[in-house]
Design a protein that fits this description.
With 224 residues, the chain is α/β, with parallel strands linked by helices. It contains seven helices and ten strands. The chain has one domain: 3-Layer(aba) Sandwich (Rossmann fold), CATH 3.40.50.300. The strands form two sheets. The protein has a six-stranded mixed sheet. Strand 1 and strand 2 form a beta hairpin. Helix 3 packs across helix 4 and helix 3 runs parallel beside helix 5. The longest helix has 18 residues. Bound molecules: adenosine-5'-triphosphate. The complex is composed of two ATP-binding proteins (LolD) and two transmembrane proteins (LolC and LolE). Its EC number is 7.6.2.-. Belongs to the ABC transporter superfamily. Lipoprotein translocase (TC 3.A.1.125) family.
């Protein structure tokens, strides 16, 4: 078996609020294999976003092991963490966070330029991804000229642009109506599978979770 893309061992995180400490993650263990698509379920406030932030190396304050593509992130400096994130991870959020002044294709090209990809190669890759998501005729549209589902598709293309081994998605279809959410998730999963990326997708939707390879649940700070 190949090495996991993500390995968590005894991941812990507490927050202090008004003098009270809450232990949100109380020893989370998880391994995700290359290409595996995992649904992360759990009630509101159970710590799904906190867990994704840990794996995404976006926040500090965690204890335990966070290993990305075989590298122990806790041993890295800030710059090296940024490089590890950029080289291996892609992100999709509930709200797309697209750059409002750039059109669809530029939103997918820019992260590739940041990663050092040649512009012509980046443009071809962006056009291919957006076309696979049905947006071939929307390449020059700015986010404000796109529907909510189309905006989220651009965000999916952006997350995959640098060929991440792992996509982290936090309620990626949570702000869409049910029919659109189903369609966007379907396309997202198809594209992720086609690319061979792994994914960890936090969702409240049990029905959509059943379309993934494995379901894990956060309950009282641990995965079950
Ligand atoms: N920066 C913070 N400071 C204090 N408390 C926090 C912070 N971030 C998260 N929390 C608390 O940690 C708990 C878990 O939050 P988190 O957002 O991870 O849950 P979630 O499962 O993603 O919820 P939802 O499904 O509603 O998005 C909540 O009680 C929240 O209030």
């Amino acid at each position: 078996m190949s090495d996991p893309v993500v390995r968590l061992r005894e991941l812990r995180r507490s927050f202090s609020q008004g003098g009270v400490t809450i232990d949100v993650l109380r020893g989370v263990n998880l391994e995700i294999r290359p290409g595996e698509i995992v649904a992360l379920l759990g009630p509101s406030g159970s710590g799904k976003s906190t867990m994704l932030q840990a794996i995404g190396l976006l926040e500090g304050g965690f204890s335990g092991l966070i290993e990305i593509a075989g590298t122990d992130a806790s041993k890295l400096s800030g710059d090296d963490r940024t490089a590890l994130r950029r080289d291996h991870l892609g992100f999709v959020y509930q709200f797309h966070h697209l750059l409002p002044d750039f059109n669809a294709i530029e939103n997918v090209v820019l992260p590739q330029l940041v990663a050092g990809t040649d512009r012509a190669v980046a443009e071809a890759r962006a056009a291919e991804l957006l076309s696979a998501l049905g947006l071939a005729k929307r390449l020059d549209h700015r986010p404000s000229q796109l529907s909510g589902g189309e905006q989220q598709r651009v965000a999916v293309a952006r997350a995959l642009a640098n060929r991440p081994e792992m996509v982290l998605a936090d309620e990626p279809t949570g702000n869409l109506d049910e029919a659109t959410a189903d369609r966007v998730l379907e396309e997202f999963l198809k594209l992720v599978r086609g690319e061979g990326s792994a994914a960890l997708i936090a969702t409240h939707n049990e029905r959509l979770a059943l379309r993934m390879d494995r379901v894990v649940r956060l309950h009282e700070g641990v995965l079950e």
